[in-house]
Amino acid sequence: MSDVQFRVEGRAFYAHKIILVNASPRFKSMLASKSAEGTTPVVQINDIRYDIFQLVMQYLYKGGCEDFDIDQNDVLELLTAATFFQLDGLVRFCEARCSKCVDLDNVVATYVHAKVYNAVQLLEYCQGFLLQNLVALLSYDDGVRKLLFGKRLHNHDVLSGLLLTLQARWLYQPLRILANGQDELERSRDRKPAFLITPSVQAPLLHISGHGDNIPAHHGDSDVPRPGFNRQHCQHLQLTWQM
Predict the structure, then answer these.
(1) What is the pTM of this model?
(2) Domain, as residue range, for 155
(3) Residue 3 Cα to chain centre, angstroms
(4) Quick check: is 165 in a domain?
(5) What are phi and psi of 141, to 5 degrees?
(6) Is residue 59 in a domain?
(7) Is residue 235 part of a domain?
(8) Domain count within the chain
(9) Is 95 exposed, middle or buried (0-12, 13-18, 19+ CB in 10 A)?
(10) Tens digit of each residue's pLDDT (9 = 90 or more) over 143-182
(11) Which of 3, 52, 121, 189 has its CA 20 to 30 A from that of 35?
C-alpha cells in the first residue's frame, strides 16, 4: 500500500517512501519534511512533466534502465529530472543516450544543457564532437561561433575548455605510452585520432563512445597531468579560428 502521494501537473502519483528515500537523497530530504505531519504526505512536483516523472519512478522501481522506453526528444528533459533527484545511474543512462544523437544541428544546445546541469560525461563528448568537426561547424552554424567567441557561459570559458581538452588528449598521448608500456602503444596504433579537425562529420572517439547505456566509471585522462594553457596560446588560437 502506498504511503506518499505526488501531485504532478494536477495528477496524482502514488509511491512508497522506503523505495524513494533509499534511492535518492533528494526524495529523502523532501519526504523528511513531510513525515512530521502525521498523515499521508502530499508532495507537489513543479517544473517536471508527468510523463517524465513516471520515467523517474520506473527507474526507481525497476532498479535500472532495462527495457526503458523513452522518446529521444525527451532524454534531455529526463536528464534534468535525474539530476534534480540525484539519481546518478539515470544521469549516466541519459548522457549515453544523448551522446548517440549529437549532430551538427544540436551539439550547441546539448553542450549548453550538459554544462548547466553538470553532466560531465556528456559535456566531454560534446567537446570532442566540437573539436573533431570544428571546420564544418564554423561554416555550418553561426551558433558554434557564438558559443566559442560570444558571451561566456556562467563560470565557464568554452574556448579555454576546448583547448584544455585538446591538449590533454592529444599532446599528452606520449605520456600514456610511457606510463602503460607496450599495451598502450598497441592500442594507440589502432585508435583513430580523438580530435581530428576535419570538415567530415564523424563521432568523436571519447571514452563514452561505443559504450552501452551503463557507462563505466572510467575517465580516460585520469593518468594525465592537468595541462597549462596560457593566455597567449588562447589568444593565438582564437585569432586563428576567427580568420
Answers:
(1) 0.62
(2) 119-243
(3) 34
(4) yes
(5) -140, 120
(6) no
(7) yes
(8) 1
(9) buried
(10) 777 776 665 555 556 666 666 666 565 554 544 544 555 5
(11) 52
